[in-house]
Amino acid sequence: MNLLRHLRIGPRLGLGFFIPVLCLVLSGWAGVQALQQVNRGLETVYEDRVVPLRGLKIIADMYAVNVIDAVNKANAGRVDAQEALKLVDEANATIQREWKAYMATFLTPEEARLAQQAQDLFGAADRDIARVQAALQTITGPAQGRLEAFDGPLYDSIDPISAKIAELIDLQLRVAKEVYDAA
Which domain holds residue 122? Predict the structure, then answer.
């Protein structure tokens, strides 16, 4: 304090303004850093949680609606074999594309484990879908009553995938909430 008493009025006033300005600059810098951290959190919530939620829903819908529903409609005579084959082919391509995009996002360790379990289940479904596609390719016109053999196997191979996808969706929501709480 003695040092300040020996300073002339000009330097004292300068220090009187410099110290608050320095505190203001440091406070602003800390605020910018905090906003950048929140922004990174929001970015990861969107890119690694919200977008994958959409992809996971599309995958679940493609299996349950497009594949199973197309086979059921063809078997019931509501659509012909060619239309059912088109729906199954589109679903299969969409599933592959969406899964690849999902796997390219940041996965937590738990999410990676669940994703691997889901991917392991895809094999049985892929085999059953390939069998359905092969059968539909051999049918021209209506397929009414000709696809009953696929009902059970398709449900048996797709239902576990739907359950695993539901687990992945729950995980997405939980991790998004954790990031939100941290922000």
Answer: 52-182
pLDDT in tens, 110-159: 999 999 999 999 999 999 999 999 999 999 888 899 999 998 889 899 99
Please tell me the distance from the alpha carbon of residue 99 to that of residue 105, in angstroms, as a whole number: 10
Phi, psi of 81 (to 5 degrees): -65, -40
Highest mean pLDDT among 11-15, 28-32, 179-183: 28-32
Task: Tell me the Ramachandran region of residue 77: left when phi exceeds 0, alpha when psi lies from -120 to 50, beta otherwise.
Answer: left
User: Residue 120 carries which side chain, given as an amino acid letter?
Assistant: D
Count Cβ atoms below 10 Å from residue 117 Cβ, excluding itself. Answer: 14
Q: What is the C-alpha to C-alpha distance for residues 57 and 47, in angstroms, rounded to an integer?
A: 15
Whether the CB-CB separation of 44 and 178 falls below 8 Å is answered with no
* CA separation, residue 92 to residues 50, 65, 114, 182 (Å): 23, 12, 21, 38
What is the domain count for the chain? 1
The predicted structure's pLDDT at residue 12: 67
CATH number for the domain spanning 177: value is: 1.20.120
Residue 77 pLDDT exceeds 80:
yes
